[in-house]
TrEMBL record:
Organism: Mycolicibacterium doricum
Superkingdom to which the source organism belongs: Bacteria
InterPro entries: NAD(P)_OxRdtase_dom_sf
Phylogenetic placement of the source organism: Bacteria, Bacillati, Actinomycetota, Actinomycetes, Mycobacteriales
Protein name: NADP-dependent oxidoreductase domain-containing protein
Residue ranges, compositional bias (Basic and acidic residues): 60-69
Residues covered by region (Disordered): 1-35, 48-69
Length: 69
């Protein structure tokens, strides 16, 4: 874990979806959530942002624990 300036922490290792096809993104992120996934590396250029967002909204941590860089 890495300590953040606000006293919270985040995992050193994240889950990247750069090369994940859109049709596989939502189930992959959802599966990671079952393993306490807290860090998803995504970007608009990856082309799977809608699916990533749905998975995070449906399966991710509560909104108070979400952040973005």
């Amino acid at each position: 874990m890495v300590a953040l300036h606000d006293g919270d922490s985040t995992p050193q290792v994240g889950f990247g979806v750069r090369q994940t096809p859109p049709e596989d993104t939502e189930p992959a992120v959802a599966a990671g959530s079952g393993r306490r996934l807290r860090h998803v590396d995504t970007a608009a250029a990856y082309g799977n942002g809608e699916q990533t967002g749905r998975a995070i909204a449906d399966f991710g941590p509560d909104r108070s624990r979400r952040g973005r860089c």
